# Entry
Amino acid sequence: MSSVDDRGLLVDLGEDRPQLPAQARIVSPIVPRASIAGRALVAVVAIMTFLASITTGGVLLVSESAAEWQSEVSSEITVQVRPKTGRDLERDIALVTEAMRAQSGIVEVRPFTKDESSKLLEPWLGSGLSFDELPVPRVIIARVQPGTSFDLNALRNRVTQVAPTASVDDHRAWIERMRSMTGATLFAGFGILLLVIAATIISVSFATRGAMAANRPIVEVLHFVGAGDRYIANHFLRHFLQLGLEGGVIGGGLAMLGFGFSESIANWFSGTPVGDQFAALLGTFSLRPLGYIAIALQAIVIAAVTGWAARRTLFATLASID
Amino acid sequence: MVRFENVGLRYGLGPEILRDLTFAIPAHSFQFLTGPSGAGKTSLLKLLFLSLRPTRGLVNLFGYDISLLSKEEIADLRKRIGIVLQDFRLLDHMTTYENVALPFRVMGRDESSYRKEVIDLLKWVGLGERMDALPPILSGGEKQRAAIARAVISRPQLLLADEPTGNVDPTLGRRLLRLFIELNRSGTAVIIATHDITLMDQYEARRLVLHQGRLHIYE
# Structure
């Protein structure tokens, strides 16, 4: 049984059916928004973006920490004055300190006291010993103005002139070792990042092709009703870019939240022995704004890869229909 | 309106399945295309719909030599042709109304300009109460009618139908034939590919018979 409603539309009045007005409106998009293949594609993009973002963030953190260590250590000079029979150690220290202060390029000189020097040995010798009888060398730390070319030889000559038992160490050997270590770590990190990005591109491309293949009947119908390639491409590219961006925002957003959360955790523990050890080893664990921008750009690039793969598959489909 | 001259078609390196087809489809004409299974009826319809390119010969459609046309120009020409396929090809995520309105949507027309037309046609083919139903819940006959309605809604100059009455009862078959005849009277050239001799006997029309890749015409 049927009747006509106030808009002149035929309305189903079947006994067992609800009496709903006929809508007869265009509400469905050309490409269905929620399909199994579409949801799977969003999940793949989100997971791969998350992994790529974590890798990128990790590499940036290691690179920033390494740069921080190197700049800190390379701006420091240590002078060691050894005790020698017949020489007044305190006087040698005062002379060396004076000579260092007179050297251009040095911004801060701090001689360690006897107690401070002894404390440096405590981790190895224990705290119950008297260091008075031991010939403990004394240390003077100087900070060099960053960015200036410092004449280390002139300082070495000047210091050994006033105190022959003094030796100057600019940590060059240590820095070289650390530089090669961090270089190797960064190289490995970039290698892993490239592999993750390659895996992301490949997996996203294949997932997109799979999702596009599921939409082939729609492409064929649009083709049969006279839609041009451009019309079909516009709808599908928009759809797949949207799916790619959705996945990218989820994956990249979760990675950003992860980095923000670990930064908060590091802040909570700062000042505690564990936090300080951690910070000394791994740096501040805070990703700079540039890092967040890199992650966001990465998500956009992955969305673009999704669109590109969809475009390739779409035109291959259209070519096969023709 | 359509002119084939010595047209041949083969798939890949296989044998030629359509050979030396030379015929014309005048404007406003009505014809049945028939022949045994595998004779190449569907392939000939695809050639007429520009979904396939001939391997040899000349195809002239609406005054255009199709070998000289770009893809976009062919897509534009295809808007002047309606096609009903054996497997209906309705979009499952769209309602019957939306499926039938699809050709207008693809043309970029505003919905208010064709809404009444679509609803009237749906009522005419007996789908007035199924406008908001999705194809998966339609019966075979309902899908068939929706596919026909989609093919004729934009009043194409040429209508191609592949076994359009294959899934409907004789009464509805007659009604659908009437729809095609009405459409033909309003100016559309109609080609109906069918095995159904009863259907062909109901209307006096030109018959194109495909046999062993060759076309025989009975005026």
